[in-house]
Design brief:
By secondary structure, the protein is an alpha+beta fold. The protein has a single domain, classed as Alpha-Beta Complex (Sufe protein. Chain: A), CATH 3.90.1010. It is built from 5 helices and 3 strands. The protein has a 3-stranded antiparallel β-sheet, with helices on one face. Helix 1 packs across helix 2. It is globular and about 40 Å long. The structure holds zinc ion (ZN). Zinc ion binds next to helix 2.
Length: 144
């Protein structure tokens, strides 16, 4: 498998037109993480409405893998119950760690990122938005 195979059309589409991206103010930013190995930088804001994750916004400057992963993630988890969000995080991370074979219906567009698991240097790029989201959930449930 060539690295080029990673950059499938769906990844490029999310990279060029990221969903749920916005410039975030410092006072609404819940999580701020960097991957110095690649230069990826991500910030997130979100709210809880009852048990639902709402108003998720992402500010990400990084490589195509990180940006596309953040965009697909935001699309997959927005307005979902927190329990479903947690289970998507677990599923995605298990797939990227190679512990679980990807099922298209688990993740939708996110299966496009499964090939990243073959490239240890890029796994951090794909998983960072998910670790950040996990931290967001933690911040929100503490703040509640
Ligand atoms: Zn990266």
């Amino acid at each position: 498998m060539q690295l080029d195979d990673l950059y499938q059309e769906v990844i490029l589409d999310h990279y060029r037109h990221p969903r749920h991206f916005a410039a975030l103010r410092d006072d609404e930013t819940l999580v701020d993480e960097e991957n110095p190995l690649c230069g990826d930088h991500i910030r997130m804001a979100a709210k809880l409405a009852g048990e639902r994750l709402t108003d998720l916004r992402v500010q990400c400057t990084g490589c195509a893998i990180c940006t596309a992963s953040a965009s697909m993630m935001a699309e997959a988890v927005s307005d979902q119950p927190v329990s479903a969000v947690r289970s998507k995080i677990e599923t995605f991370l298990a797939i990227l760690r190679g512990e679980q074979p990807p099922q298209a219906d688990d993740l939708g567009d996110l299966v496009a990122l499964r090939g990243v698991a073959e490239f240890p240097m890029r796994v951090k790029c794909a998983t960072m938005p998910w670790h950040a989201l996990s931290a967001v959930l933690q911040r929100l449930s503490v703040a509640k």
